[in-house]
Amino acid sequence: MALLPILTYPDPRLHTVAKPVQAVDARIRALIADMLETMYDANGIGLAATQVDVHERLIVIDVSEERNQPLVLVNPEITWASAEKQVGDEGCLSVPGIYDGVERSRAVRVRAIDGEGQSREVEAEGLLAVCIQHEMDHLLGKVFVEYLSPLKRNRIKTKMLKARRDTERV
Ligand code: NI
């Protein structure tokens, strides 16, 4: 297993639209293991393949307190979303240090292939529902800051670019 570098906003590669995974083979299983290790190491609750510069439809999630309930969703598709919405604060491993409110469906149902190649359907509400919607956006090339006002987004972009320059200097 290996830790994978995480792309940070506004890296243009974060706006790539992912293609479906063709098969859950050895390569994909290795990628799943690496993505889980990377997510846990970064203390994240979700990670999309897009964020590690692999543009295939695969996300990993763990919203459990104990960090021992990994959820692997390959080729996820939302089959139902509640009309009821709620606004919650979101953050993202690709936008470190930034948290802001985003409106999402309160509950969703998602069909996907799991890490063993089995088809399954997951019903989610609350934090898990938010996380699934956030990670699936990544697969469409969308970062959560794009829901914020242009003014906020530009401030975040400036801050991220400055942070990157500061890192490169040391
Ligand atoms: Ni994210």
Automatic annotation (TrEMBL):
Pfam families: Pep_deformylase. Keywords: Hydrolase, Iron, Metal-binding, Protein biosynthesis. Binds 1 Fe(2+) ion. Gene3D superfamilies: Peptide deformylase. Its EC number is 3.5.1.88. Fe cation binds at residues 92, 134, 138. The active site is at 135. One of its GO terms (molecular function) is peptide deformylase activity. Belongs to the polypeptide deformylase family. This is Peptide deformylase. It comes from Ramlibacter ginsenosidimutans. The lineage of its organism: Bacteria, Pseudomonadati, Pseudomonadota, Betaproteobacteria, Burkholderiales.
